[in-house]
């Protein structure tokens, strides 16, 4: 197979490229990435220059660039990870989120149609569903839940999902979508919760936590996410949405405490700061469709995955020097 992975210099896309190269060495993987502030070529160090891999710097919203690449490579499948992904940045500057996340997706969908690509897989998020109340463990998002995005980021992702499904219905574009919960693992930008807190704790700096820290996220290891996407590419049904969850709900404050504990730092480093505007309270994902149809379930237990992730950041501190646009801008929990 010849697969285009967009956004592969980012966190999950980078993990996916390494996963696919190990799981399917005969596949040709091409990565298209604009290398925004969030792109880091060091993430792809093990793949660059290797057989069956090509990196192309380019914008998914640039129709001429996308079209030329599709004509040259004749892809069998496209997996679209490329996105502006940070909620805080979307609150400060929504425009770029609409351009990349919606128009970029449309540009790729048009190219898929024009070049007869066999599958377009859209990487989406559980944030399209909005949030759930605390204290209602019986409630979880299913694929039938209403789309009620809270942030400009989530609204742009929901728009892209709707567009992809509309292309499937109107043009017969072979679309699948996965909506995953919060990922953690190696290669994540230091503006995001877990790497940011690890960096602060290591340096003995205050760990800034939004509001009361009780916001709950459903944590999924990036490795488990990659396995889910691979399965959906192989056996997922066209036109379908699949939720991907970790089955592991943890309040932000407890994630922060675990990191402090692992690094032997005191909880007195926790510093509560003004809450994010419109901050979602709780996410929880029902992934029974993926489990029942494709036999997937998460394999990495959170305590072990978090320990391994912390160790990876400690052992790879030169890696973050590879970011195109410098360090973190506005990371808080
Ligand atoms: N991180 C999570 O917890 C999470 C959870 C659910 C879904 N997702 C989704 O997974 C995808 C990947 O998220 P991530 O956390 O790896 O993001 P990331 O910010 O780490 O990486 C995004 C990558 O996309 C590239 N990019 C941005 N704009 C581009 C453009 N116009 N053209 C080409 N490349 C561009 C960046 O250079 C970067 O390499 C996103 O679609 C996101 O919505 C993420």
Q: How would you concisely characterize the structure shown here?
A:
By secondary structure, this protein is an alpha/beta fold.
How would you describe this protein?
The protein is α/β, with parallel strands linked by helices and 333 residues long. It has a domain at 2-189 and 222-245 and 284-299: Rossmann fold (3-Layer(aba) Sandwich), CATH 3.40.50.720. Helices cover 38% and strands 17% of the residues. The chain has a 7-stranded parallel β-sheet with strand order 3-2-1-4-5-6-11, with helices on both faces. Strands 7-10 form a two-stranded parallel ribbon. The protein has a two-stranded parallel ribbon with strand order 8-13. The termini are far apart. The structure holds nicotinamide-adenine-dinucleotide. Residues 6-7, 9-13, 32-36, 38-39, 59-61, 81-85, 100, 104, 123, 125, 157, 180, 182-183, 189 line the site of nicotinamide-adenine-dinucleotide.
Write the layout of secondary structure elements.
Blueprint: E1 2-6, H1 11-23, E2 28-33, E3 53-57, H2 63-73, E4 77-80, H3 87-92, H4 95-115, E5 119-125, H5 152-171, E6 175-180, E7 183-184, H6 193-203, E8 207-210, E9 216-218, E10 220-221, H7 222-235, E11 241-244, E12 249-251, H8 252-262, E13 270-273, H9 288-294, H10 302-315
Parallel strand pairs: 1-2, 1-4, 2-3, 4-5, 5-6, 6-11, 7-10, 8-13
Antiparallel strand pairs: 9-12
């Amino acid at each position: 197979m010849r697969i285009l992975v967009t956004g592969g210099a980012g966190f999950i896309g980078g993990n996916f490229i390494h996963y696919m190269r190990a799981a399917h060495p005969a596949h040709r993987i091409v990565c298209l990435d604009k290398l925004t502030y969030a792109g880091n070529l060091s993430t792809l160090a093990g793949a660059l220059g290797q057989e069956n891999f090509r990196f192309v710097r380019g914008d998914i919203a640039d129709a001429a660039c996308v079209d030329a690449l599709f004509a040259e490579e004749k892809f069998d499948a496209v997996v679209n990870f490329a996105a502006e992904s940070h909620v805080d940045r979307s609150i400060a500057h929504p425009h770029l989120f609409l351009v990349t996340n919606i128009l970029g997706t449309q540009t790729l969908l048009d190219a898929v149609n024009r070049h007869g690509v066999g599958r377009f897989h859209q990487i989406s998020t559980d944030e399209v569903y909005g949030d759930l109340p605390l204290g209602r463990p019986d409630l979880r998002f299913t694929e039938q839940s209403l789309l009620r995005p809270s942030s400009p980021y989530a609204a742009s992702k929901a728009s892209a999902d709707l567009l992809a499904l509309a292309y499937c219905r109107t043009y017969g574009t072979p679309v699948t979508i996965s909506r995953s919960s919060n990922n953690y693992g190696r290669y994540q930008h230091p503006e995001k919760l877990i790497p940011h807190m690890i960096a602060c704790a290591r340096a003995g700096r205050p760990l800034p936590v939004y509001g009361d820290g009780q916001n709950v996220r459903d944590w999924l290891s990036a490795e488990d996410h990659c396995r889910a996407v691979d399965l959906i590419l192989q056996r997922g049904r066209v036109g379908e949405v699949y939720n991907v969850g970790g089955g592991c709900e943890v309040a932000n404050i407890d994630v922060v405490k675990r990191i402090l504990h692992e690094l032997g730092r005191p909880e007195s480093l926790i510093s509560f700061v003004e809450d994010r505007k419109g901050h979602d309270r709780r996410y929880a994902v029902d992934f029974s469709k993926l489990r029942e149809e494709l036999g997937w379930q998460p394999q990495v237990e959170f305590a072990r995955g978090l320990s391994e992730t912390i160790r990876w950041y400690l052992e790879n501190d030169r890696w973050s020097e590879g970011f195109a646009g410098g360090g973190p801008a506005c990371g808080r929990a």
